[in-house]
């Protein structure tokens, strides 16, 4: 009986088992090619045959003696592809035809197996190699042939998903997504997404995703959307956008997106400040965005080692340089996060993170020909996710909302929270956060597991203590227009800082924190939250 090799195509290293009688290690490559590369990592004996499995190291040694012997793929058979076109699978296996050794075939099939899983349309992919007794030898009879059998199990055509999330604005959202998977047989996906926020935010989109575009490593994502982003609680405006976004991503960490959207900034409160009212109206956004991410964290939820950094650059105004309604700007943001374990036995880790961003307007925008940036494109700072002990978007430039008696009274005590005045329909805040064109923030923190046997369940859930120090600055670009020495002084004088301790519950959707801290430095009109602060953030500076 011939020897059979079985490998797990989803592992980095092959694991080997054998079946049948032991044979001399000098058996020819035709028998050695009677092997299997299976995603199931298991080999079954023929019906009625007696099975004996030699030790793994013994079989591995026998395999190593013939791995470089001549062998070539003579045929490929595909099974189980009810919707998927055979050409899609054959394209990913094409490199196996180029291999001329048993080991080369194995490596090519491992790579093909991984690429097929990347389509996201298969539950399982099993690839088996056998000696091709019918096809005989190739290349004039010098190279024994091998037959490859690919068995796939496809995922369901229809998929549906619902969930709750936290947006980058700190707003709770409910999401429903449904669509078709691989309807035409090329690995494509069609999805409809519905998102509704707890305030007035909403997103409706229809997307078409095409992986491995024309056999390349490029994945295409095209979507039409309508979204409403609600900032009325903190800044007295909403942004309605309708447009198209097209994104491409290769096998590397970078992505490129193009978006063209018609935007409408409105004041649903009728109490917006003068600066916000200057921003109201329509604008056209035509922008190219490049995002590069390098993620070396050991895990996403409560990492213990590694680093992550991200660069996002955006150029707006593409193709509409002479259009007064087109937004024209260059925006770049860099963020980084590093974690190191100090004491693994007690779960003590140290982390540091930082963020730096700039927004430059160019050309003339708006009916008045002003070169100011749009409030919908600016940076904001403050909140559990970026600068603790300050309220959401509570740092940086702001402007008083339209005057009322309560507004005037609150202005006499700047830097403090304003009591809600929902009884007469007035907004609870007296100033609109305007955002800024220049931002930086930094956080240093220590994390520690909660000690004690009673809290074992909390430790398993990732709940832990932390102590933190944060600092940051948010400014309009006009504030930095002077000499470099003057700009440095402005940034230093505008720096905010806070210290504190708390309990953290990290979740896949975000991080829930209950902190007690103190604002060390704040601006006159900042909204601070000294003492206890509870919040959840999707994007956290740990």
UniProtKB/TrEMBL annotation:
InterPro entries: Bac_surfAg_D15, BamA/TamA_POTRA, D15-like
Keyword terms of this UniProt record: Membrane, Plastid, Plastid outer membrane, Transmembrane, Transmembrane beta strand
Stretches for region Disordered: 1-56, 393-428
Entry membrane topology: Multi-pass membrane protein
Pfam families documented for this protein: Omp85, POTRA
Family as reported in the entry's similarity comment: Belongs to the SAM50/omp85 family.
Name this polypeptide is given: Uncharacterized protein
Taxonomic source organism: Ostreococcus lucimarinus (strain CCE9901)
């Amino acid at each position: 009986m011939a020897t059979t090799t079985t490998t797990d195509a989803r592992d980095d290293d092959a694991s080997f088992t054998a079946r049948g009688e032991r044979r001399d290690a000098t058996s020819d490559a035709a028998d050695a090619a009677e092997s299997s590369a299976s995603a199931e990592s298991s080999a079954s004996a023929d019906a009625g045959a007696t099975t004996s499995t030699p030790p793994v190291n013994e079989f591995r040694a026998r395999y190593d003696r013939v791995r470089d012997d001549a062998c070539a793929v003579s045929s490929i058979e595909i099974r189980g592809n009810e919707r998927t076109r055979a050409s899609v699978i054959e394209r990913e296996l094409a490199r196996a035809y180029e291999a001329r050794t048993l080991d080369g075939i194995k490596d090519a099939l491992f790579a093909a197996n991984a690429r097929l899983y990347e389509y996201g349309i298969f539950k399982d992919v099993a690839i088996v190699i056998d000696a091709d007794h019918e096809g005989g030898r190739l290349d004039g009879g010098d190279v024994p042939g091998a037959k490859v059998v690919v068995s796939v199990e496809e995922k369901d055509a229809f998929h549906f998903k619902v969930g709750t999330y936290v947006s980058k604005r700190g707003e709770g959202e409910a999401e429903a997504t449904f669509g078709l998977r691989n309807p035409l047989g090329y690995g494509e996906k069609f999805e409809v997404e519905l998102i509704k926020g707890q305030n007035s935010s909403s997103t409706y989109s229809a997307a078409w995703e095409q992986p491995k575009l024309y056999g390349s490593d490029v994945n295409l994502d095209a979507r039409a959307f309508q979204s409403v982003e609600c900032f009325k609680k903190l800044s007295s405006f909403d942004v309605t956008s309708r447009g198209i976004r097209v994104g491409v991503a290769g096998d590397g960490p970078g992505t490129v997106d193009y978006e063209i959207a018609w935007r409408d900034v409105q004041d649903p409160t009728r109490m917006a400040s003068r600066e916000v009212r200057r921003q109201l109206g329509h604008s056209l956004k035509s922008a190219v965005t490049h995002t590069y991410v390098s993620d070396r964290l050991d895990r996403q939820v409560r990492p213990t080692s590694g680093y992550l950094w991200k660069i996002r650059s955006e150029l707006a105004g593409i193709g509409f340089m002479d259009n007064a309604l087109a937004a024209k700007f260059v925006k770049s943001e860099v963020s980084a996060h590093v974690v190191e374990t100090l004491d693994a036995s007690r779960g003590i880790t140290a982390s540091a993170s930082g963020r730096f961003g700039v927004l430059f307007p160019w050309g003339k925008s708006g009916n008045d020909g002003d070169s100011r940036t749009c409030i919908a494109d600016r940076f904001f700072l403050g909140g559990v996710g970026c600068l603790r002990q300050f309220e959401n978007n509570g740092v940086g430039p702001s402007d008083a909302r339209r005057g009322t008696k309560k507004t005037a009274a609150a202005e006499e005590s700047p830097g403090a929270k304003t009591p809600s005045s929902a009884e007469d329909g007035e907004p609870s805040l007296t100033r609109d956060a305007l955002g800024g064109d220049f931002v930086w923030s930094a956080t240093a923190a220590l994390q520690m597991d909660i000690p004690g046997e009673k809290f074992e369940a909390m430790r398993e859930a990732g709940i832990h203590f932390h102590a933190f120090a944060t600092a940051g600055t948010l400014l309009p670009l006009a504030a930095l227009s002077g000499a470099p020495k003057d700009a440095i002084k402005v940034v230093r004088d505008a720096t905010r800082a806070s210290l504190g301790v708390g309990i953290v519950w990290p979740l896949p959707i975000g991080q829930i924190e209950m902190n007690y801290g103190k604002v060390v430095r704040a601006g006159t009109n900042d909204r601070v939250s000294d003492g206890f602060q509870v919040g959840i953030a999707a994007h956290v500076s740990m």
